[in-house]
Amino acid sequence: MRDLVIGIDGGTGGVRAYVFDAHGQVLGHGDAPYETQYPASGWAQQRPDDWWQAVCSGVRAAMEQAAVAPQRIAALCAATTSCTVLACAKSGEALDDAILWMDVRASKEAADIEALTGQTLSAELFVCKALWLLRNRPELCERADVLCEYQDYLNHRLTGEWCFSVNTACNWGYNKRKGDFERDFYRTVGLGAVLPKLPSRAVSAGERVGMLSPEAAQELGLDTDVMVVQGGIDSSIGMLGMGVAAPGPVALMTGSSNLAMAVTQEPMFGRGDEINLGPDFLVDGYYTSFRGQVSTGSILRWFKREFCRDLGDDAFRELDRLAAQVPPGSGGLTVLDYWQGNRVPHNDPDVRGLIYGLSMNTPREAVFRAVMEGVAYGTDDLLRAFTEKGFPLNAVCISGGTTRSDIFLQIHADVSGVPFLVTCDYSVALGCGICAARAAGMYDTLPQAAAAMVRTQKTVQPNAQNHTRYLALAERYRSLYRAIRGWVHGE
């Protein structure tokens, strides 16, 4: 009996694979890391072969821990980082390293697109990177049969079939209701030559891509009767794993970056504010309105790597313990979380991180807490964008890496002044499980599957006194960018 599903989270730092039953219970999981290369300031790249090896290792580990027969797996689904772009041969071979989502080398292309169209786009987006490739790597673009994303590459590796995720293609200018890309836009910005290289088949989240190929089945330790189901953007599919499949609370996906997302009946942000996924890009009949923060957990990992090697594998646990003893405000430190630029509210890919207020008496744990506070201020900017548009912010459903730290969770709640509802730290994989369960016929719709498979584990209430203190500190944080912007840009 095929009564189980596998969800695969292809994140920035590695793969997390989970085996779920039809009720969302975890039977087994496996993790496999991969590396990111930073060949220049603002650049970030990954090797596609590393993705595949991590998927195979993660799935095999999850199956081993679950101790179930391969014949019980009905379907699997993956979600991956979005705007992670690569050029491929028709066979599926990656012709070069992938340009990671956080890479902002295409800042000039974003500015040129704005000058031509009036649309303010982040340098991270697919179309900006595609234009950069066309200008700077013309020989690579000429050799490529397919220009795609991590999601599409992985689905091809699983099935041997090319398609694109409707959910992911929101970043490409795809309109599901029209069933086509914004071709005039592509031609206007000089990307007409890219259109024939995009996969032609559109598949929505929770729909079948194909069956597992014999080669992939062997490497994963599964069989060819497993259905491969379309996922999409990791954060977007993670909304389902947080139970946000209809208008209601804001979903906050945390990890290397943070995204605040809400299901809305109408688009909330205009083209000059931020992209809205929709219509129908995740849940039919709705938009997904969101705001994004480029660097969050990745900054904490940087701090650990560069300044805490003496603490070993338990560095974060010890840093959390010490940071909890530092009062709000971190002894006068203020951190701008712009290590890879800023997306919201400034859309400035060229600004970089800042730590202000260091003295000869500043201990390491105060800097660490200040980094967490800086990230929380940046996240609050995302949430404020919703309230400024009239969206009621009564609670935030949160998932991802932040949920593993009690002090980081409390800082977020204290800064924003609303309860944070913790579902799980594997919501992307669970969202994939929800998509797979729906496609396998266990549920009729994605909202129905989400309602049955997601549970809230705990609620973190804000401390009123700390919130009052953080209101002033957050304004100081916001004033820093205004103070340095002219200097950053040589004005």
TrEMBL record:
Biological process, per Gene Ontology: L-arabinose catabolic process to D-xylulose 5-phosphate
GO MF term set: ATP binding; D-ribulokinase activity; ribulokinase activity
GO cellular component: cytoplasm
Name of protein: Carbohydrate kinase
UniProt entry keywords in alphabetical sequence: Arabinose catabolism, ATP-binding, Carbohydrate metabolism, Kinase, Nucleotide-binding, Transferase
Residue span(s) of domain Carbohydrate kinase FGGY N-terminal: 5-241
Source organism per UniProt: Feifania hominis
Domain Carbohydrate kinase FGGY C-terminal residues, every copy: 251-440
InterPro entries, per the entry: ATPase_NBD, Carb_kinase_FGGY, FGGY_C, FGGY_N, Ribulokinase
